[in-house]
Protein backbone atom coordinates (compact mmCIF):
# COMPACT_ATOMS: atom_id res chain seq x y z
CA UNK A 1 0.00 0.00 0.00
CA UNK A 2 1.52 3.32 -0.99
CA UNK A 3 1.76 6.13 1.51
CA UNK A 4 -1.27 8.43 1.31
CA UNK A 5 -3.50 10.51 3.51
CA UNK A 6 -3.94 7.38 5.63
CA UNK A 7 -0.64 8.12 7.34
CA UNK A 8 0.91 11.26 8.73
CA UNK A 9 4.54 12.19 9.17
CA UNK A 10 4.37 11.95 12.93
CA UNK A 11 1.95 9.11 13.44
CA UNK A 12 1.53 5.74 11.83
CA UNK A 13 -1.26 3.40 12.72
CA UNK A 14 -0.37 0.18 14.56
CA UNK A 15 -1.28 -3.07 12.83
CA UNK A 16 -4.41 -4.85 13.95
CA UNK A 17 -2.59 -8.16 13.56
CA UNK A 18 0.54 -8.24 15.66
CA UNK A 19 3.71 -9.95 14.54
CA UNK A 20 3.43 -12.66 17.16
CA UNK A 21 0.16 -14.04 15.79
CA UNK A 22 0.26 -17.80 15.61
CA UNK A 23 0.74 -19.16 12.07
CA UNK A 24 -2.06 -21.22 10.67
CA UNK A 25 -2.53 -24.49 8.81
CA UNK A 26 0.51 -25.82 7.01
CA UNK A 27 0.82 -28.48 4.48
CA UNK A 28 -2.19 -28.44 2.94
CA UNK A 29 -4.24 -30.58 3.21
CA UNK A 30 -6.81 -29.75 0.69
CA UNK A 31 -7.58 -26.04 0.59
CA UNK A 32 -11.30 -26.44 1.00
CA UNK A 33 -11.12 -28.91 3.87
CA UNK A 34 -9.20 -27.05 6.46
CA UNK A 35 -9.82 -23.32 6.76
CA UNK A 36 -7.22 -21.66 8.98
CA UNK A 37 -8.84 -19.09 11.24
CA UNK A 38 -5.90 -18.23 13.47
CA UNK A 39 -4.94 -15.07 11.72
CA UNK A 40 -8.27 -13.42 12.32
CA UNK A 41 -9.04 -14.72 15.77
CA UNK A 42 -5.91 -14.09 17.80
CA UNK A 43 -6.10 -10.37 18.34
CA UNK A 44 -9.55 -9.27 17.19
CA UNK A 45 -10.80 -8.98 20.74
CA UNK A 46 -7.92 -6.74 21.74
CA UNK A 47 -8.19 -4.36 18.77
CA UNK A 48 -9.45 -0.89 19.40
CA UNK A 49 -12.88 -0.51 17.81
CA UNK A 50 -12.24 3.09 16.76
CA UNK A 51 -9.02 2.08 15.01
CA UNK A 52 -10.75 -0.64 13.02
CA UNK A 53 -13.63 1.66 12.11
CA UNK A 54 -11.17 4.29 10.94
CA UNK A 55 -9.34 1.73 8.82
CA UNK A 56 -12.50 0.61 7.01
CA UNK A 57 -13.51 4.23 6.52
CA UNK A 58 -10.16 4.86 4.86
CA UNK A 59 -10.69 1.87 2.59
CA UNK A 60 -13.96 3.30 1.34
CA UNK A 61 -12.20 6.54 0.35
CA UNK A 62 -9.71 4.75 -1.89
CA UNK A 63 -10.43 4.36 -5.61
CA UNK A 64 -11.70 0.90 -6.58
CA UNK A 65 -8.48 -0.07 -8.35
CA UNK A 66 -6.41 0.74 -5.26
CA UNK A 67 -8.82 -0.60 -2.64
CA UNK A 68 -7.86 -4.01 -1.16
CA UNK A 69 -10.70 -6.50 -1.25
CA UNK A 70 -10.90 -10.30 -1.00
CA UNK A 71 -12.86 -10.25 -4.24
CA UNK A 72 -9.59 -9.40 -6.00
CA UNK A 73 -8.40 -12.84 -4.91
CA UNK A 74 -11.33 -14.83 -6.29
CA UNK A 75 -10.25 -14.91 -9.97
CA UNK A 76 -6.68 -15.43 -8.81
CA UNK A 77 -7.72 -18.46 -6.73
CA UNK A 78 -9.68 -19.93 -9.63
CA UNK A 79 -6.55 -19.82 -11.80
CA UNK A 80 -4.43 -21.21 -8.94
CA UNK A 81 -6.86 -24.10 -8.62
CA UNK A 82 -6.66 -24.74 -12.37
CA UNK A 83 -2.87 -24.50 -12.35
CA UNK A 84 -2.40 -26.97 -9.50
CA UNK A 85 -5.04 -29.50 -10.52
CA UNK A 86 -4.17 -29.52 -14.22
CA UNK A 87 -0.69 -30.85 -13.50
CA UNK A 88 -0.78 -32.61 -10.12
CA UNK A 89 -1.74 -36.05 -11.43
CA UNK A 90 0.61 -35.76 -14.40
CA UNK A 91 3.49 -34.92 -12.06
CA UNK A 92 2.77 -38.05 -10.03
CA UNK A 93 2.74 -40.15 -13.20
CA UNK A 94 6.00 -38.53 -14.32
CA UNK A 95 7.50 -39.46 -10.98
CA UNK A 96 6.56 -43.10 -11.55
CA UNK A 97 8.13 -42.95 -15.03
CA UNK A 98 11.32 -41.34 -13.73
CA UNK A 99 11.79 -43.86 -10.92
CA UNK A 100 11.03 -46.74 -13.27
CA UNK A 101 13.48 -45.47 -15.87
CA UNK A 102 16.29 -45.35 -13.34
CA UNK A 103 15.50 -48.75 -11.84
CA UNK A 104 15.29 -50.50 -15.21
CA UNK A 105 18.35 -48.67 -16.46
CA UNK A 106 20.43 -49.84 -13.51
CA UNK A 107 19.20 -53.41 -13.92
CA UNK A 108 20.30 -53.35 -17.58
CA UNK A 109 23.69 -51.93 -16.69
CA UNK A 110 22.85 -48.44 -17.85
CA UNK A 111 24.23 -46.76 -14.78
CA UNK A 112 25.77 -43.85 -16.69
CA UNK A 113 24.31 -40.65 -15.21
CA UNK A 114 21.80 -39.07 -17.53
CA UNK A 115 21.42 -42.13 -19.76
CA UNK A 116 19.11 -44.30 -17.68
CA UNK A 117 16.11 -43.08 -19.67
CA UNK A 118 17.32 -45.12 -22.64
CA UNK A 119 16.08 -48.25 -20.87
CA UNK A 120 12.44 -47.43 -21.63
CA UNK A 121 12.73 -44.46 -23.94
CA UNK A 122 11.42 -40.98 -23.20
CA UNK A 123 9.75 -41.01 -19.77
CA UNK A 124 7.30 -38.32 -20.86
CA UNK A 125 5.31 -40.69 -23.06
CA UNK A 126 2.80 -43.24 -21.86
CA UNK A 127 2.63 -46.29 -24.13
CA UNK A 128 0.01 -49.02 -24.28
CA UNK A 129 2.53 -51.50 -22.87
CA UNK A 130 4.21 -49.90 -19.89
CA UNK A 131 6.90 -51.78 -17.93
CA UNK A 132 6.65 -49.27 -15.09
CA UNK A 133 3.54 -50.73 -13.49
CA UNK A 134 5.17 -53.59 -11.66
CA UNK A 135 4.69 -54.06 -7.93
CA UNK A 136 8.39 -53.50 -7.35
CA UNK A 137 8.41 -50.09 -9.04
CA UNK A 138 5.15 -48.87 -7.54
CA UNK A 139 6.13 -50.13 -4.09
CA UNK A 140 9.34 -48.15 -4.30
CA UNK A 141 7.42 -45.08 -5.48
CA UNK A 142 5.16 -45.35 -2.44
CA UNK A 143 8.15 -45.47 -0.11
CA UNK A 144 9.81 -42.59 -1.97
CA UNK A 145 6.67 -40.47 -1.55
CA UNK A 146 6.74 -41.20 2.16
CA UNK A 147 10.38 -40.21 2.49
CA UNK A 148 10.13 -36.96 0.58
CA UNK A 149 6.88 -36.10 2.35
CA UNK A 150 8.57 -36.51 5.73
CA UNK A 151 11.56 -34.41 4.66
CA UNK A 152 9.29 -31.69 3.32
CA UNK A 153 7.13 -31.71 6.45
CA UNK A 154 10.09 -31.37 8.81
CA UNK A 155 11.55 -28.40 6.93
CA UNK A 156 8.10 -26.81 6.69
CA UNK A 157 7.62 -26.99 10.46
CA UNK A 158 11.02 -25.38 11.01
CA UNK A 159 10.51 -22.47 8.61
CA UNK A 160 6.78 -21.75 8.54
CA UNK A 161 6.67 -19.51 11.62
CA UNK A 162 9.43 -17.25 10.30
CA UNK A 163 7.88 -16.87 6.86
CA UNK A 164 4.39 -16.08 8.14
CA UNK A 165 5.70 -13.49 10.60
CA UNK A 166 7.29 -11.58 7.70
CA UNK A 167 3.88 -10.83 6.19
CA UNK A 168 3.19 -8.42 9.07
CA UNK A 169 6.33 -6.50 8.11
CA UNK A 170 6.77 -6.89 4.36
CA UNK A 171 3.10 -7.21 3.44
CA UNK A 172 0.69 -9.89 2.29
CA UNK A 173 1.72 -9.57 -1.35
CA UNK A 174 5.27 -10.51 -0.40
CA UNK A 175 4.07 -13.81 1.04
CA UNK A 176 1.90 -14.48 -2.01
CA UNK A 177 4.86 -13.84 -4.31
CA UNK A 178 7.10 -16.15 -2.28
CA UNK A 179 4.47 -18.89 -2.41
CA UNK A 180 4.19 -18.53 -6.19
CA UNK A 181 7.97 -18.66 -6.46
CA UNK A 182 7.96 -21.97 -4.61
CA UNK A 183 5.31 -23.36 -6.97
CA UNK A 184 7.40 -22.29 -9.97
CA UNK A 185 10.47 -24.03 -8.56
CA UNK A 186 8.43 -27.20 -8.07
CA UNK A 187 7.19 -27.19 -11.67
CA UNK A 188 10.68 -26.57 -13.05
CA UNK A 189 12.22 -29.38 -10.99
CA UNK A 190 9.54 -31.87 -12.06
CA UNK A 191 9.98 -30.86 -15.69
CA UNK A 192 13.73 -31.31 -15.34
CA UNK A 193 13.29 -34.67 -13.58
CA UNK A 194 11.44 -36.07 -16.60
CA UNK A 195 14.00 -34.82 -19.12
CA UNK A 196 17.00 -36.55 -20.62
CA UNK A 197 19.23 -34.07 -18.78
CA UNK A 198 18.33 -35.42 -15.34
CA UNK A 199 21.66 -36.66 -13.96
CA UNK A 200 20.30 -37.16 -10.45
CA UNK A 201 17.57 -39.74 -11.02
CA UNK A 202 14.83 -39.86 -8.40
CA UNK A 203 17.13 -38.09 -5.92
CA UNK A 204 16.00 -34.85 -7.52
CA UNK A 205 12.73 -35.23 -5.60
CA UNK A 206 14.61 -34.98 -2.31
CA UNK A 207 16.03 -31.67 -3.53
CA UNK A 208 12.49 -30.57 -4.31
CA UNK A 209 11.31 -31.63 -0.84
CA UNK A 210 14.01 -29.57 0.88
CA UNK A 211 13.44 -26.49 -1.29
CA UNK A 212 9.66 -26.62 -0.86
CA UNK A 213 10.19 -27.06 2.88
CA UNK A 214 12.35 -23.96 3.00
CA UNK A 215 9.71 -22.18 0.89
CA UNK A 216 6.53 -23.99 2.03
CA UNK A 217 4.18 -23.35 -0.87
CA UNK A 218 0.75 -24.30 0.41
CA UNK A 219 1.61 -23.36 3.98
CA UNK A 220 2.48 -19.83 2.78
CA UNK A 221 -0.38 -19.24 0.37
CA UNK A 222 -3.07 -20.16 2.88
CA UNK A 223 -1.97 -17.70 5.62
CA UNK A 224 -1.37 -14.99 3.03
CA UNK A 225 -4.82 -15.36 1.48
CA UNK A 226 -6.62 -15.40 4.81
CA UNK A 227 -4.51 -12.56 6.23
CA UNK A 228 -5.48 -10.49 3.21
CA UNK A 229 -9.12 -11.35 3.88
CA UNK A 230 -8.83 -10.34 7.53
CA UNK A 231 -7.30 -6.98 6.65
CA UNK A 232 -10.18 -5.84 4.48
CA UNK A 233 -13.33 -7.51 5.86
CA UNK A 234 -15.29 -7.00 9.06
CA UNK A 235 -15.87 -9.81 11.50
CA UNK A 236 -19.51 -10.21 10.46
CA UNK A 237 -18.60 -10.92 6.84
CA UNK A 238 -15.46 -13.00 7.19
CA UNK A 239 -17.02 -16.45 7.35
CA UNK A 240 -19.09 -15.82 4.24
CA UNK A 241 -16.11 -14.36 2.41
CA UNK A 242 -13.91 -17.33 3.32
CA UNK A 243 -16.60 -19.60 1.92
CA UNK A 244 -16.52 -17.68 -1.36
CA UNK A 245 -12.73 -18.01 -1.54
CA UNK A 246 -12.83 -21.75 -0.87
CA UNK A 247 -15.54 -22.20 -3.49
CA UNK A 248 -13.43 -20.28 -6.03
CA UNK A 249 -10.49 -22.61 -5.46
CA UNK A 250 -12.71 -25.70 -5.69
CA UNK A 251 -14.14 -24.42 -8.97
CA UNK A 252 -10.60 -24.10 -10.34
CA UNK A 253 -9.87 -27.67 -9.26
CA UNK A 254 -12.88 -28.98 -11.16
CA UNK A 255 -11.97 -27.13 -14.36
CA UNK A 256 -8.25 -27.93 -14.10
CA UNK A 257 -8.73 -31.66 -13.58
CA UNK A 258 -10.96 -31.89 -16.66
CA UNK A 259 -8.53 -29.83 -18.73
CA UNK A 260 -5.55 -31.89 -17.64
CA UNK A 261 -7.14 -35.15 -18.68
CA UNK A 262 -8.17 -33.77 -22.08
CA UNK A 263 -4.72 -32.30 -22.79
CA UNK A 264 -2.89 -35.48 -21.82
CA UNK A 265 -5.18 -37.55 -24.02
CA UNK A 266 -4.73 -35.21 -26.99
CA UNK A 267 -0.95 -34.76 -26.77
CA UNK A 268 0.34 -37.97 -25.21
CA UNK A 269 2.99 -35.90 -23.40
CA UNK A 270 2.65 -35.49 -19.65
CA UNK A 271 4.99 -32.50 -19.57
CA UNK A 272 2.67 -30.33 -21.67
CA UNK A 273 0.44 -29.55 -18.69
CA UNK A 274 3.53 -28.73 -16.61
CA UNK A 275 4.55 -26.17 -19.23
CA UNK A 276 1.04 -24.72 -19.22
CA UNK A 277 1.21 -24.46 -15.43
CA UNK A 278 4.47 -22.54 -15.72
CA UNK A 279 2.76 -20.04 -18.02
CA UNK A 280 -0.02 -19.73 -15.44
CA UNK A 281 2.51 -18.90 -12.70
CA UNK A 282 3.84 -16.02 -14.82
CA UNK A 283 0.33 -14.66 -15.40
CA UNK A 284 -0.53 -14.99 -11.71
CA UNK A 285 2.66 -13.15 -10.73
CA UNK A 286 1.70 -10.28 -13.04
CA UNK A 287 -1.77 -10.19 -11.49
CA UNK A 288 -0.27 -10.10 -8.00
CA UNK A 289 1.84 -7.09 -8.96
CA UNK A 290 -1.36 -5.14 -9.61
CA UNK A 291 -3.09 -6.41 -6.46
CA UNK A 292 -3.62 -3.64 -3.86
CA UNK A 293 -1.70 -4.27 -0.65
CA UNK A 294 -3.97 -4.88 2.36
CA UNK A 295 -1.53 -4.47 5.25
CA UNK A 296 -2.82 -1.84 7.65
CA UNK A 297 0.60 -0.25 8.04
CA UNK A 298 2.96 0.77 5.30
CA UNK A 299 4.96 -2.36 4.40
CA UNK A 300 8.71 -2.17 4.71
CA UNK A 301 10.74 -2.86 1.61
CA UNK A 302 12.91 -5.94 1.47
CA UNK A 303 16.01 -3.73 1.43
CA UNK A 304 14.89 -1.90 4.58
CA UNK A 305 14.14 -5.15 6.37
CA UNK A 306 17.51 -6.66 5.47
CA UNK A 307 19.24 -3.49 6.62
CA UNK A 308 17.41 -3.60 9.96
CA UNK A 309 18.42 -7.23 10.43
CA UNK A 310 22.02 -6.42 9.66
CA UNK A 311 21.91 -3.50 12.09
CA UNK A 312 20.54 -5.73 14.83
CA UNK A 313 23.27 -8.28 14.24
CA UNK A 314 25.89 -5.52 14.42
CA UNK A 315 24.57 -4.28 17.76
CA UNK A 316 24.48 -7.80 19.11
CA UNK A 317 28.05 -8.45 18.07
CA UNK A 318 29.25 -5.25 19.79
CA UNK A 319 27.43 -6.13 23.00
CA UNK A 320 28.87 -9.61 23.15
CA UNK A 321 32.35 -9.01 21.75
CA UNK A 322 34.00 -9.65 25.11
CA UNK A 323 32.18 -12.96 25.47
CA UNK A 324 33.04 -14.06 21.96
CA UNK A 325 36.69 -13.33 22.57
CA UNK A 326 36.70 -16.02 25.24
CA UNK A 327 35.48 -18.71 22.85
CA UNK A 328 38.10 -21.19 21.82
CA UNK A 329 37.19 -21.27 18.14
CA UNK A 330 34.72 -19.84 15.69
CA UNK A 331 33.49 -23.39 15.19
CA UNK A 332 32.24 -23.57 18.77
CA UNK A 333 30.41 -20.27 18.35
CA UNK A 334 28.77 -21.57 15.19
CA UNK A 335 27.67 -24.75 16.92
CA UNK A 336 26.10 -22.72 19.70
CA UNK A 337 24.15 -20.63 17.22
CA UNK A 338 22.92 -23.73 15.43
CA UNK A 339 21.90 -25.26 18.77
CA UNK A 340 19.95 -22.19 19.87
CA UNK A 341 18.31 -21.90 16.46
CA UNK A 342 17.24 -25.55 16.56
CA UNK A 343 15.97 -25.11 20.11
CA UNK A 344 13.91 -22.07 19.13
CA UNK A 345 12.45 -23.86 16.11
CA UNK A 346 11.57 -26.96 18.11
CA UNK A 347 9.89 -24.74 20.70
CA UNK A 348 7.63 -23.29 18.01
CA UNK A 349 6.60 -26.85 17.15
CA UNK A 350 6.01 -28.49 20.51
CA UNK A 351 5.21 -25.64 22.91
CA UNK A 352 1.78 -24.91 21.36
CA UNK A 353 0.74 -28.54 21.85
CA UNK A 354 0.96 -28.05 25.63
CA UNK A 355 -2.28 -26.06 25.40
CA UNK A 356 -4.18 -29.32 25.01
CA UNK A 357 -2.59 -31.08 27.97
CA UNK A 358 -5.20 -31.35 30.77
CA UNK A 359 -4.63 -28.68 33.39
CA UNK A 360 -2.80 -26.17 31.19
CA UNK A 361 -6.03 -24.34 30.37
CA UNK A 362 -8.62 -23.64 33.10
CA UNK A 363 -11.80 -25.65 32.63
CA UNK A 364 -14.63 -23.47 31.34
CA UNK A 365 -18.38 -24.05 31.46
CA UNK A 366 -18.26 -25.06 27.81
CA UNK A 367 -15.98 -28.01 28.56
CA UNK A 368 -17.61 -31.26 29.61
CA UNK A 369 -14.38 -32.23 31.41
CA UNK A 370 -10.84 -30.94 31.56
CA UNK A 371 -9.94 -33.67 29.06
CA UNK A 372 -12.24 -32.22 26.37
CA UNK A 373 -9.55 -30.32 24.38
CA UNK A 374 -7.21 -33.32 24.41
CA UNK A 375 -9.97 -35.62 23.15
CA UNK A 376 -10.78 -33.24 20.30
CA UNK A 377 -7.15 -32.98 19.22
CA UNK A 378 -6.55 -36.73 19.44
CA UNK A 379 -9.61 -37.44 17.30
CA UNK A 380 -8.52 -34.90 14.70
CA UNK A 381 -4.91 -36.17 14.81
CA UNK A 382 -5.79 -39.79 14.00
CA UNK A 383 -8.36 -38.67 11.44
CA UNK A 384 -5.71 -36.71 9.57
CA UNK A 385 -3.17 -39.54 9.60
CA UNK A 386 -5.68 -41.99 8.16
CA UNK A 387 -7.00 -39.66 5.45
CA UNK A 388 -3.64 -38.13 4.45
CA UNK A 389 -1.88 -41.50 4.27
CA UNK A 390 -4.55 -43.03 2.04
CA UNK A 391 -4.59 -39.97 -0.23
CA UNK A 392 -0.81 -40.09 -0.67
CA UNK A 393 -0.87 -43.68 -1.97
CA UNK A 394 -3.92 -43.32 -4.19
CA UNK A 395 -2.14 -42.89 -7.53
CA UNK A 396 0.39 -45.74 -7.03
CA UNK A 397 -2.49 -47.99 -5.93
CA UNK A 398 -4.79 -47.17 -8.86
CA UNK A 399 -1.87 -47.47 -11.26
CA UNK A 400 -1.20 -51.00 -10.01
CA UNK A 401 -4.69 -52.34 -9.31
CA UNK A 402 -6.87 -50.57 -11.89
CA UNK A 403 -4.15 -49.73 -14.47
CA UNK A 404 -5.10 -46.07 -14.37
CA UNK A 405 -3.13 -43.44 -16.22
CA UNK A 406 -3.09 -39.66 -16.08
CA UNK A 407 -6.47 -39.32 -17.85
CA UNK A 408 -8.26 -41.51 -15.32
CA UNK A 409 -6.51 -39.74 -12.45
CA UNK A 410 -7.61 -36.36 -13.78
CA UNK A 411 -11.21 -37.52 -14.18
CA UNK A 412 -11.22 -38.85 -10.63
CA UNK A 413 -9.76 -35.58 -9.32
CA UNK A 414 -12.50 -33.67 -11.11
CA UNK A 415 -15.10 -35.95 -9.52
CA UNK A 416 -13.49 -35.49 -6.10
CA UNK A 417 -13.47 -31.70 -6.41
CA UNK A 418 -17.09 -31.73 -7.57
CA UNK A 419 -18.10 -33.80 -4.54
CA UNK A 420 -16.28 -31.43 -2.19
CA UNK A 421 -17.79 -28.41 -3.95
CA UNK A 422 -21.33 -29.74 -3.58
CA UNK A 423 -20.74 -30.92 -0.01
CA UNK A 424 -19.42 -27.64 1.38
CA UNK A 425 -21.66 -25.39 -0.68
CA UNK A 426 -24.98 -27.21 -0.29
CA UNK A 427 -25.11 -30.51 1.63
CA UNK A 428 -23.20 -29.53 4.77
CA UNK A 429 -25.11 -26.25 5.30
CA UNK A 430 -28.40 -28.04 4.60
CA UNK A 431 -27.61 -30.72 7.17
CA UNK A 432 -26.80 -28.03 9.73
CA UNK A 433 -30.14 -26.31 9.09
CA UNK A 434 -31.95 -29.65 9.36
CA UNK A 435 -30.19 -30.45 12.62
CA UNK A 436 -31.13 -27.08 14.11
CA UNK A 437 -34.77 -27.51 13.13
CA UNK A 438 -34.96 -30.99 14.60
CA UNK A 439 -33.28 -29.92 17.83
CA UNK A 440 -35.48 -26.81 18.03
CA UNK A 441 -38.63 -28.92 17.69
CA UNK A 442 -37.53 -31.22 20.51
CA UNK A 443 -36.51 -28.21 22.59
CA UNK A 444 -39.93 -26.66 22.05
CA UNK A 445 -41.66 -29.81 23.32
CA UNK A 446 -39.43 -29.87 26.38
CA UNK A 447 -40.18 -26.20 27.08
CA UNK A 448 -43.93 -26.82 26.86
CA UNK A 449 -43.68 -29.66 29.37
CA UNK A 450 -41.51 -27.59 31.66
CA UNK A 451 -43.96 -24.68 31.52
CA UNK A 452 -46.58 -26.73 33.40
CA UNK A 453 -44.37 -27.13 36.46
CA UNK A 454 -44.34 -23.50 37.70
CA UNK A 455 -48.16 -23.50 37.84
CA UNK A 456 -47.96 -26.02 40.69
CA UNK A 457 -45.52 -23.95 42.73
CA UNK A 458 -45.34 -20.56 44.34
CA UNK A 459 -43.91 -17.74 42.27
CA UNK A 460 -40.74 -17.60 44.40
CA UNK A 461 -40.16 -21.31 44.04
CA UNK A 462 -40.78 -21.04 40.32
CA UNK A 463 -38.08 -18.41 39.97
CA UNK A 464 -35.63 -20.46 42.00
CA UNK A 465 -36.32 -23.57 39.94
CA UNK A 466 -36.02 -21.78 36.59
CA UNK A 467 -32.91 -22.49 34.49
CA UNK A 468 -29.89 -20.38 35.32
CA UNK A 469 -28.44 -20.45 31.82
CA UNK A 470 -29.24 -17.65 29.44
CA UNK A 471 -30.47 -18.12 25.92
CA UNK A 472 -27.00 -17.36 24.54
CA UNK A 473 -25.45 -19.99 26.81
CA UNK A 474 -27.93 -22.57 25.58
CA UNK A 475 -27.26 -21.68 21.96
CA UNK A 476 -23.50 -21.91 22.52
CA UNK A 477 -23.79 -25.32 24.12
CA UNK A 478 -26.17 -26.37 21.37
CA UNK A 479 -23.61 -25.37 18.74
CA UNK A 480 -20.95 -27.44 20.51
CA UNK A 481 -23.21 -30.48 20.59
CA UNK A 482 -24.04 -29.98 16.91
CA UNK A 483 -20.33 -29.95 16.02
CA UNK A 484 -19.85 -33.14 18.02
CA UNK A 485 -22.68 -34.83 16.13
CA UNK A 486 -21.06 -33.94 12.81
CA UNK A 487 -17.64 -35.08 14.04
CA UNK A 488 -19.01 -38.46 15.16
CA UNK A 489 -21.18 -38.89 12.06
CA UNK A 490 -18.39 -37.86 9.69
CA UNK A 491 -15.90 -40.24 11.28
CA UNK A 492 -18.39 -43.10 11.06
CA UNK A 493 -18.80 -42.41 7.33
CA UNK A 494 -15.01 -42.37 6.86
CA UNK A 495 -14.62 -45.73 8.60
CA UNK A 496 -17.25 -47.23 6.32
CA UNK A 497 -15.81 -45.58 3.18
CA UNK A 498 -12.28 -46.87 3.85
CA UNK A 499 -13.48 -50.40 4.60
CA UNK A 500 -15.60 -50.51 1.47
CA UNK A 501 -12.72 -50.08 -1.02
CA UNK A 502 -10.62 -53.19 -0.21
CA UNK A 503 -13.69 -55.35 0.44
CA UNK A 504 -15.27 -54.58 -2.96
CA UNK A 505 -12.35 -53.56 -5.16
CA UNK A 506 -14.14 -52.06 -8.16
CA UNK A 507 -13.91 -48.66 -9.81
CA UNK A 508 -17.55 -47.89 -8.99
CA UNK A 509 -16.91 -48.51 -5.30
CA UNK A 510 -13.83 -46.31 -5.53
CA UNK A 511 -15.96 -43.40 -6.73
CA UNK A 512 -18.78 -44.18 -4.31
CA UNK A 513 -16.31 -44.28 -1.44
CA UNK A 514 -14.94 -40.88 -2.44
CA UNK A 515 -18.42 -39.37 -2.41
CA UNK A 516 -18.93 -40.73 1.12
CA UNK A 517 -15.52 -39.39 2.14
CA UNK A 518 -16.48 -35.88 1.03
CA UNK A 519 -19.34 -36.02 3.53
CA UNK A 520 -17.17 -37.69 6.15
CA UNK A 521 -14.40 -35.14 5.94
CA UNK A 522 -16.75 -32.48 7.24
CA UNK A 523 -15.66 -33.96 10.57
CA UNK A 524 -12.41 -32.03 10.15
CA UNK A 525 -14.24 -28.74 9.65
CA UNK A 526 -16.48 -29.45 12.64
CA UNK A 527 -13.39 -30.23 14.76
CA UNK A 528 -11.92 -26.79 14.05
CA UNK A 529 -15.20 -25.13 15.00
CA UNK A 530 -15.48 -27.33 18.08
CA UNK A 531 -12.04 -26.66 19.52
CA UNK A 532 -12.42 -22.91 19.00
CA UNK A 533 -15.77 -23.01 20.83
CA UNK A 534 -14.72 -24.88 23.96
CA UNK A 535 -11.43 -23.09 24.59
CA UNK A 536 -11.24 -19.59 26.15
CA UNK A 537 -12.08 -16.91 23.64
CA UNK A 538 -8.91 -14.88 24.16
CA UNK A 539 -6.83 -17.98 23.29
CA UNK A 540 -8.60 -18.83 20.03
CA UNK A 541 -5.67 -17.92 17.80
CA UNK A 542 -3.13 -19.85 19.81
CA UNK A 543 -5.44 -22.87 19.97
CA UNK A 544 -6.03 -23.02 16.20
CA UNK A 545 -2.31 -22.53 15.63
CA UNK A 546 -1.54 -25.42 17.96
CA UNK A 547 -4.10 -27.54 16.12
CA UNK A 548 -2.36 -26.79 12.83
CA UNK A 549 0.97 -27.88 14.32
CA UNK A 550 -0.62 -31.17 15.37
CA UNK A 551 -1.98 -31.57 11.84
CA UNK A 552 1.46 -31.00 10.34
CA UNK A 553 3.00 -33.60 12.63
CA UNK A 554 0.24 -36.03 11.72
CA UNK A 555 0.87 -35.46 8.03
CA UNK A 556 4.58 -36.24 8.46
CA UNK A 557 3.76 -39.48 10.26
CA UNK A 558 1.22 -40.40 7.58
CA UNK A 559 3.39 -39.98 4.51
CA UNK A 560 6.44 -41.57 6.15
CA UNK A 561 4.71 -44.65 7.57
CA UNK A 562 2.25 -45.32 4.75
CA UNK A 563 5.00 -45.35 2.14
CA UNK A 564 6.82 -48.13 3.94
CA UNK A 565 3.58 -49.98 4.61
CA UNK A 566 2.69 -49.94 0.92
CA UNK A 567 6.10 -51.25 -0.11
CA UNK A 568 5.86 -54.15 2.34
CA UNK A 569 2.30 -55.15 1.41
CA UNK A 570 2.21 -54.38 -2.31
CA UNK A 571 2.91 -58.01 -3.29
CA UNK A 572 0.19 -59.56 -1.14
CA UNK A 573 -2.44 -56.84 -0.60
CA UNK A 574 -1.87 -53.45 -2.28
CA UNK A 575 -5.06 -52.10 -0.67
CA UNK A 576 -4.15 -53.15 2.85
CA UNK A 577 -3.46 -49.56 3.87
CA UNK A 578 -7.20 -48.87 3.54
CA UNK A 579 -7.77 -51.16 6.52
CA UNK A 580 -5.15 -49.18 8.46
CA UNK A 581 -6.90 -45.91 7.58
CA UNK A 582 -10.23 -47.39 8.64
CA UNK A 583 -8.67 -48.44 11.95
CA UNK A 584 -7.23 -44.96 12.55
CA UNK A 585 -10.58 -43.34 11.74
CA UNK A 586 -12.23 -45.83 14.11
CA UNK A 587 -9.77 -44.79 16.82
CA UNK A 588 -10.63 -41.15 16.15
CA UNK A 589 -14.31 -42.10 16.30
CA UNK A 590 -13.75 -43.66 19.73
CA UNK A 591 -12.23 -40.43 21.11
CA UNK A 592 -15.01 -38.35 19.56
CA UNK A 593 -17.70 -40.67 20.92
CA UNK A 594 -16.28 -40.41 24.44
CA UNK A 595 -16.40 -36.64 24.11
CA UNK A 596 -19.98 -36.75 22.80
CA UNK A 597 -21.04 -39.04 25.65
CA UNK A 598 -19.54 -36.67 28.24
CA UNK A 599 -21.50 -33.78 26.77
CA UNK A 600 -24.66 -35.89 26.83
CA UNK A 601 -24.17 -36.29 30.57
CA UNK A 602 -23.51 -32.58 31.09
**How many DSSP helices?**
20
So what's the CATH class of the largest domain?
A: Mainly Alpha
**Class from helix and strand fractions:** mainly alpha
Major β-sheet profile? none
The tally of structural domains comes to: 2
Question: Total number of β-strand segments?
Answer: 0
How would you sum up this structure, described in words?
With 602 residues, the protein is mainly alpha-helical. The protein folds into two domains: 74-297, Growth Hormone, Chain: A (Up-down Bundle); 329-446 and 473-602, Growth Hormone, Chain: A (Up-down Bundle), CATH 1.20.1250. The protein has 20 helices and no strands. The protein has helices spanning 49-61, 73-107, 135-170, 172-193, 204-214, 217-231, 235-267, 271-290, 302-319, 321-325, 330-350, 372-392, 394-401, 406-452, 459-465, 471-503, 507-520, 522-534, 540-569, 576-601. The chain is globular and about 70 Å long. The relative contact order is 0.14. The model is unreliable at 1-49, 107-128, 312-328 and 455-474 (pLDDT under 50). GO terms for molecular function: transmembrane transporter activity. This is MFS general substrate transporter. The chain crosses the membrane at residues 69-87, 174-193, 205-230, 242-264, 270-291, 374-395, 484-505, 543-563, 575-599. Keywords: Membrane, Transmembrane, Transmembrane helix.
Amino acid sequence: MTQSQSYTDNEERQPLLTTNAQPTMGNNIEFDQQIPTTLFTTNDQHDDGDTEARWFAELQQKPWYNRPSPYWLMPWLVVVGIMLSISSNSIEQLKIKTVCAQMLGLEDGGAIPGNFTSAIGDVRAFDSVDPCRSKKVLGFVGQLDGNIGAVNGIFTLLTLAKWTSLSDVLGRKFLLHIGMFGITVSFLLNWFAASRFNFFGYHIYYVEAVLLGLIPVGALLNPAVFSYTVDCTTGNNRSRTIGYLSTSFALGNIVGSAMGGAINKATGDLTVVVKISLVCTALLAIYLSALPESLKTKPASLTQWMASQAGGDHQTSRATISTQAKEATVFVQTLKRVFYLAKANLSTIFDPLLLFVPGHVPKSEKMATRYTPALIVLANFFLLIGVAGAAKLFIPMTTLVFKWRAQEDDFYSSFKSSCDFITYLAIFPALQVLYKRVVSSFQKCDDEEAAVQPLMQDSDEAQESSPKSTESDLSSMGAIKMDLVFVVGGLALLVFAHLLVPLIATEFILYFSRALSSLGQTAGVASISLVSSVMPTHMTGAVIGALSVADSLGNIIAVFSYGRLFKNTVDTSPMFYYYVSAGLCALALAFATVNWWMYRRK
